[in-house]
TrEMBL record:
Belongs to the peptidase M14 family. This is Carboxypeptidase B. GO terms for molecular function: metallocarboxypeptidase activity; zinc ion binding. One of its GO terms (cellular component) is extracellular space. The keyword Signal applies. Residues 1-19 form the signal peptide. GO terms for biological process: proteolysis. Residues 30-69 are annotated as: Disordered.
Length: 484
């Protein structure tokens, strides 16, 4: 299990502002109890694999090859890292197109172009898909589309230009503030992992009575998986778990989750009774290796960075296809080169395993789980693995719609609410399905902004508006959780 990393240095000025009688100083080691001996609802025998079924969904537009996924291949050290070199992947000339998939045969053609490595698909729903046309492929794909009479809109005509403009350096005032604040985190920029981790540690140091940080495991490349907890220590509190950054390139997600953390930690005393009566757990970057890789090498990397098998040049598992409820079913690939590779078995990846172990062994009474992704503006509840819903889906739908309403009232963004398989397409092995199967009632995958204008390359000016309206949604969730 993770090591205890609570800092002992106190900053008297800050802590003195937080000595309200509501807040108990918890003895170190007592505030993150595990429930080891408690029997979990998790049903191991549910981990059977469904056969991979042919379907016409977006996520199926990948080259499927039969899995040779066997445990003994797990530990073989892999080549290819050096071969990849250190140069940044250049998306000059790459474009983003919005393509209607309602016409017969369009998905088949997209699948073919994908196998020829000319395109990749980003977000999509049942009628549209955003298609990345790779550099140098624009002429050929244009020819195919025109031959097949497929219509499309060019949304981004030079992706690299967008990438270059996305995350500009902070201005001098901000840098000055950064230096005075004690941490470097802002919501005016997408920050590197180190800034995020130092920010979490800073809060634990500054507000030791309510904030603590625990490393719940390590990523494949050895980075910490840091969970921050905010709690007034009341043993009857319900708990909410929030994570971000399962998919590396969805930068708005860790930015939003850290915004929540900042808001709740810095203003705890003034927060609503609903907020104070909840034990908050945050894992802002589930996939730190992938996240760093998107900053250093490939802005559009999605998976983690664990190599697949020897002799294959492909890296990474889609962590959101690696969770152990109905693992291996629809909308996940057995091909390690696929963007939606499910891994060699359920929880084959250290990141998904650490997260699941933490949730299973924590004594916290988790009543809600939110996992933040981008993009598309959806509030999705289980199930993801197939077009089915849990028995309490009406409760989830009501809460989801109330959250969506609060978001729209606050910032104007319109979120669609529904089950992930029903509203989008089946995708098995998601974290939300697994957490729901643990008995956590309000489980949602949130697809943040936008709806495809910038896609993953959302300019930094969007961070605060997106995070602020999302926080309004979180307040609604907290009110439902405290009513349980
Ligand atoms: C556990 O899985 C078995 C086999 O799939 C199934 O028969 C049983 O109903 C499941 N139990 C629960 C509580 O889901
Ligand atoms: C699907 O995506 C298109 C284009 O982004 C959008 O206009 C449409 O409303 C979406 N459909 C649903 C059901 O969300
Ligand atoms: C585009 O098509 C031409 C002619 O069919 C072919 O020679 C070329 O390799 C193709 N380019 C790509 C990037 O596939
Ligand atoms: C595309 O449209 C043209 C003219 O509308 C038609 O002649 C042609 O057969 C169509 N091609 C396909 C593949 O549908
Ligand atoms: C956990 O919360 C649920 C409501 O979500 C409640 O029914 C249950 O009694 C709580 N369990 C404990 C041990 O507090
Ligand atoms: Zn995602």
């Amino acid at each position: 299990m993770g090591s205890w990393t609570r800092m002992v240095v106190l900053l008297p000025f800050f802590t003195s502002t937080f000595c309200t009688p509501l807040i108990n100083e918890l003895e170190p080691g007592k505030d993150w109890p595990t429930r080891g001996s408690v029997k979990q609802p998790y049903n191991q025998t549910d981990d059977v694999q469904d056969p991979i079924e042919a379907s016409t969904t977006t996520s199926e537009l990948v080259n499927e090859t039969p899995s040779s996924g066997k445990d003994e291949l797990e530990d073989i050290t892999i080549i290819a890292r050096a071969a990849e070199g250190n140069a940044k992947v250049d998306y000059s000339g790459a474009q983003l197109w919005k393509v209607s998939t309602e016409k017969n045969g369009v998905r088949v053609i997209l699948g073919r172009l994908k196998r020829r490595n000319l395109i990749a698909t980003w977000a999509g729903n049942q009628t549209y898909v955003d298609v990345l046309i790779k550099p140098n492929a624009v002429a050929n794909v244009t020819r195919v589309f025109s031959r097949e009479n497929i219509s499309y809109d060019i949304i981004i005509d030079d992706l690299q230009k967008r990438i270059n403009e996305e995350n500009p350096p902070l201005d001098e005032n901000e840098i000055e503030l950064q230096n005075r604040r004690g941490h470097r985190m802002t919501w005016k920029q997408y920050h590197r992992l180190q800034d995020i981790h130092e920010f979490l540690d800073y809060l634990a140091t500054t507000y030791p009575k309510i904030v603590s940080v625990n490393t719940i495991g390590k990523s494949y490349e050895g980075r910490d998986l840091k969970v921050l907890r905010i709690s007034n220590g009341n043993p009857s509190n319900k708990a909410i778990f929030i994570d971000g950054g399962i998919h590396a390139r969805e930068w708005i997600s860790p930015a939003t989750v850290t915004f929540f953390i900042n808001q709740i930690a810095e203003n705890f005393a003034e927060e609503s009774e609903d907020f104070k009566g909840i034990d908050w757990y945050f894992l802002p970057v589930v996939n730190p290796d992938g996240y760093e890789y998107t900053h250093l090498v490939d802005r559009l990397w999605r998976k983690n960075r664990k190599p697949a098998y020897a002799g294959r040049a492909c890296f990474g598992t889609d962590l959101n296809r690696n969770f152990g409820y109905r693992w291996g079913g629809k909308g996940a690939s057995s091909n390690p080169c696929s963007e939606i590779y499910r891994g060699s078995r359920a929880f084959s990846e250290p990141e998904s395993r650490a997260l699941s172990e933490f949730i299973k062994t924590s004594a916290a009474n988790f009543s809600a789980y939110l996992t933040y992704h981008s993009y598309g503006q959806y509030l999705l509840y289980p199930w993801g693995y197939d077009n089915a819903v849990p028995p309490d889906h009406k409760d989830l739908d009501v809460v989801g719609k109330n959250i969506a309403e609060a978001i729209q009232k606050t910032g104007g963004s319109k979120y669609s609410v529904g089950s992930s398989s029903g509203l989008l397409y089946p995708a098995s092995g998601g974290s939300d399905d697994w957490v729901k199967a643990q008995g956590v009632k309000y489980t949602f995958t949130v697809e943040l902004s936008d709806t495809g204008r910038y896609g993953f390359i959302l300019p930094t000016t969007n961070i605060e508006p997106v995070a602020r309206e999302s926080l309004a949604g979180l307040r609604i969730l907290a009110s439902y959780v405290s009513k349980l």
